[in-house]
Amino acid sequence: MRANGVAAVLEGMLTAAQLAEMNAAFDACDDIIQRRDFGDEEGSLSRGSTALAGSHGRGDTGELMQWPEPWCFPFRELLTHPRTVRIMLDLVGEGFHYSSANGITMETGAEGHMMHGGGGGQREAWKYNCDRNGEIECNLITVMYQLADIGPGDGGLVCIPCA
């Protein structure tokens, strides 16, 4: 969510019960999570950045909505999360749609990754640009739910203003 051009962190979006259910799903589906191979430049998300380099790749969940039952259910319920839906309606109005729901797991030493989404050759829905007034034009809004606490120095989402 943006307020005066700043991305916002909204705490308390999920209840303790929802967090417990989702974390239990991650534990039960550990065999589905694939550690990303970053052995070559093409597979690396850090794209040669020493600041983002790691000793191993992150874990990729695949499509959470397609995990086996009952483990997919807590993620499917997020599609109608009342507070999130209200925010989306306030930001873009009616007509937004779900694209995908996948997750990542990060452990100490996992590589970070470079900014993505604005370059050529990307899906049209992922592209963004900045207009002459420094306003970002984008066809994609990402909603992220953190299922564990993140502290200073742990990494996270980076937002870079246009102007």
Defining traits:
alpha+beta, three-stranded antiparallel beta sheet, globular, 163 residues, disordered N terminus, 3 helices, 17% helix
Please write out the topology.
Blueprint: E1 2-3, E2 6-7, H1 16-28, E3 34-35, E4 59-63, H2 73-76, H3 82-92, E5 102-105, E6 128-130, E7 136-138
Antiparallel strand pairs: 1-2, 3-4, 4-5, 6-7
Spatial gap, N to C terminus = 19 Å
| Apparent shape | globular
Side by side, the strands of the main sheet go 3-4-5
Q: What integer value in Å does the Rg equal?
A: 17 Å
Strand content: 5-15%
Roughly what percent helix?
10-25%
- Residue-averaged pLDDT: 78
Global structural class: alpha+beta
Please summarize the sheet with the most strands: 3 strands, antiparallel
Give the strand tally: 7
Unreliable segments of 5+ consecutive residues: 1-6
Number of helices: 3
Order of helices and strands: EEHEEHHEEE
Describe the structure.
This protein is of the alpha+beta class. Helices cover 17% and strands 13% of the residues. The protein has three helices and seven strands, in the order E-E-H-E-E-H-H-E-E-E. The protein has helices spanning 16-28, 73-76, 82-92, and strands spanning 2-3, 6-7, 34-35, 59-63, 102-105, 128-130, 136-138. The longest helix is centred in the first third of the chain and has 13 residues, at 16-28. It is globular.
